[in-house]
Amino acid sequence: MKTLSAIKYLLVFFLFAGMGCQDIVVYPTFTIGKESSFRINQLYTSSDGQYTLQISDIGDSRCPDGAMCFWSGEVSLKGEWTANKTPTAIELHTVIKDMEKQPEGFTIQIVDAKPYPKISGESKPADLVITLLIQKKSKLDAISFTHSMKGWELYSWLNGNDWNYSILVGTNRAKSYSEVVTNKVSVIGKDSLKILLDKFPASEEIFWTGKRSGDDWVNFSFPDGKTVDEIKNYCTQKDLALAAFN
């Protein structure tokens, strides 16, 4: 009898607990710069409340497990991105990138889509959980380099605790101090410099200039030897010819 009473008590407890859970409203959110999960026809709001994203259509042409396909297929989606209450149509693809429509100032990447299609079952968009990585574009995204007949000039200087790097196209004339430090192609830190180096065509020549005589040129110098070697090695990996002159 005691056992039966205990079972009845537990059933009543879970009943009321379930009723309480129905009152909890979960608002789907995503975080800029981190991977987040999405489903079709649900409105998602960024954690800072400034943006929304809703997927209206999902295409899944991936080759099902156990099937023989001529190509691996892809995942695509269409939806609406809202910033400052202004909606923008978006279209994303995992393979056919030239058909993409990205929101201004952001990049959205399809990281994953689960479950993976199986040959024995029908995949429905409502069953899919899409993982997206939403990131803000930086000024570095808009920078590109083409071949320069006279190579490129790299300058570095310490500003507080941070090393600044500036890259200008090579010329026959000497650059002024103001021209270097106000250059738009300037970054802070070696990691950001590496992002710039990634954008160069292979075999480009880069001349890294240290101290020079003249107005304020004493401010220009090289970082520590370990950092210099790291940047040199990185250029070697990228097939860039870096020469340092002090």
Explain this structure.
With 246 residues, this protein is of the alpha+beta class. It folds into 2 domains: 25-137; 142-245, Nucleotidyltransferase, domain 5. The chain is built from 4 helices and 13 strands. The protein has helices at residues 2-21, 177-181, 190-197, 225-237; strands at 29-30, 35-38, 43-46, 51-60, 75-83, 86-93, 106-114, 129-136, 152-159, 162-169, 186-188, 205-209, 241-245. The strands form 3 sheets. It has a 5-stranded mixed β-sheet, with no helix packed on it. A hairpin with a 2-residue loop joins strand 9 and strand 10. The longest helix is centred in the first third of the chain and has 20 residues, at 2-21. The radius of gyration is 27 Å and the shape is elongated. The N and C termini lie far apart (92 Å). The model is unreliable at 1-26 (pLDDT under 50).
